[in-house]
Design a protein that fits this description.
This protein is α+β, with helices and mostly antiparallel strands and 142 residues long. The protein contains 3 helices and 8 strands. It folds into 2 domains: 71 residues, 2-Layer Sandwich (GMP Synthetase, Chain A, domain 3), CATH 3.30.300; 56 residues, SH3 type barrels (Roll).
């Protein structure tokens, strides 16, 4: 079983869902970031429980070379969309999509199927192939 799948099982055992895993370097420090969601919301207590349950697994199966910090957090209101399941779970939310040519699309994500986004912008639906996207994220309209 892969490390990601083992982490996912631990997260699910605590009533949450694994949203994403990132290995990043910030301010010269390596961070292994586990991002979770939960129907009842993600709070500090849930993050601590997940961290405490995952730490022993990572002691035996280090996720990256050298020293690192483990972070467990929610993706927040404005979150990156990378995987097909991220787009599927964000239907009905506002998204900002940057295409490979540098242009941007903003609007409500109406549907996601066959690796294509359907975004409503100014009362018309724009269809975008997933492979033509450089980056995408949800955003909150105030």
């Amino acid at each position: 079983m892969s490390l990601e799948r083992e982490i996912e099982k631990i997260v699910e055992s605590l009533g949450a869902k694994l949203y994403d895993i990132e290995s990043v370097s910030e301010n010269g420090k390596n961070i292994y970031r586990i991002i979770i969601t939960a129907n009842k919301g993600v709070d500090v207590d849930l993050c601590a429980k997940v961290s405490n349950m995952i730490s022993p697994l990572l002691d035996v199966n280090p996720p990256m070379a050298g020293s690192y910090s483990l972070e467990v957090s929610s993706p927040g209101i404005e979150r990156k969309l990378k995987k097909p399941k991220h787009f599927q779970n964000s239907i009905g939310e506002f998204v900002r999509v940057v295409l490979n040519d540098g242009s941007q699309i903003e609007g409500e994500l109406k549907d996601f199927k066959d690796n294509r986004l359907f975004v409503e912008t100014n009362e018309k639906i724009v269809e975008v192939d997933l492979d033509k996207i450089t980056s995408a994220k949800t955003f909150y309209r105030w």
